[in-house]
Design brief:
By secondary structure, this protein is mostly helical. It has 2 domains: 164 residues, Tetracycline Repressor, domain 2 (Orthogonal Bundle), CATH 1.10.357; 127 residues. The termini are far apart. The model has no long low-confidence stretch (mean pLDDT 96).
Length: 295
């Protein structure tokens, strides 16, 4: 296994910005769970191990996607590190297996409930890997495909929550799961909306599957759902006014940007809108962390 090729793969398909986002996802769940716990848990080596465990879980999802998309990616992206043969699926699975040890160790450290929640999330991710054994039914239905796969996000939140708070029926856990679900949906939709002149017959997109305007409406509706869920979470942790305002401002700016592109689709502007959606998700998480950990 060539270290240079491994680094090249990570840079291309699992870059530092993604790793940082997954770390933020972990600390968001940790922050809310600890906030409502009887005995809050300060940041320690356990949390650092937890971050590695969470990143490992998301990396395995990345590897599973590589398996599912191998044939179409060979056609559309022959120059990628995996497609060009500089790294193999077997090597990616070896890396994932090594990293998975951190998931097991961290879950064991936190007790039976965390182990069970991890196994549930792991089992669901394996079902995702095999596309719930109904691949021929799901693949032509891109939106339904996304719905079934995005449910992994609340399960990951549940896994992390269980390590810090035994109340697995706490309302904030459900809203935290909702925030991750809405955020994940928005990101997934936004990155696969293209202007008509940028569509490719061999590349799936929501703008082709459910329509260009419908896709934009769905993004804005899911973002609005995220706003309401975020409002509840911020209210429950007694957040300051700035946290509410910045989320509302980002939503308003995103709405304006997409509204301009309904009749005048421009690929460059759609990618800018995708950036705003990503920023919305990032700020949602960071505002919760700041308000629970630093105020």
């Amino acid at each position: 296994m060539n270290a240079i090729n491994v680094i090249a793969y990570f840079k291309e398909r699992f870059p530092p910005v993604h790793i940082m986002l997954f770390a933020i996802v972990f600390f968001t769940a940790y922050s809310v769970a600890s906030y409502f716990a009887i005995s809050p848990s300060p940041v320690s080596i356990r949390e650092l191990l937890g971050v590695i465990a969470a990143i490992s879980f998301f990396f395995r999802l990345r590897v599973f996607d590589e398996v599912k998309d191998l044939q179409i990616d060979n056609l559309n992206h022959p120059g990628r590190v995996l497609q060009s043969g500089r790294i193999t699926l077997k090597q990616l699975f070896i890396i994932s297996a090594v990293l998975s040890v951190f998931e097991l160790l961290w879950s064991y450290w936190n007790g039976p409930a965390t182990i069970i929640c991890w196994l549930v999330a792991l089992a669901y991710s394996v079902l995702m890997r095999y596309e719930f054994f109904v691949s021929s039914f799901l693949k032509p239905r891109l939106f339904l495909y996304a719905c079934t796969h995005m449910l992994i996000m609340p399960l990951i939140m549940l896994w992390v929550w269980s390590a810090y708070n035994p109340d697995l029926l706490h309302p904030s856990l459900f809203f935290l799961g909702g925030l991750s679900l809405f955020g994940g949906f928005c990101f997934e939709l936004a990155r696969k909306i293209h202007a008509p002149n940028a569509e490719r017959a061999t590349v799936d997109s929501y703008s082709q599957s459910i329509g260009y305007k419908t896709s934009i409406v769905c993004v804005l509706l899911f973002l609005l759902g995220g706003v309401f869920v975020q409002y509840y979470l911020l209210h429950s942790i007694q957040a300051a006014l700035w946290a509410y305002l910045i989320i509302c401002l980002l939503y308003l700016l995103t709405c304006i940007l997409y509204a301009k592109m309904v009749k005048h689709p421009v690929e460059k502007n759609l990618r800018l809108a995708e950036l705003f959606v990503s920023l919305f998700m990032l700020v949602s998480y960071l505002s919760i962390i700041i308000e629970t950990q630093f105020t």
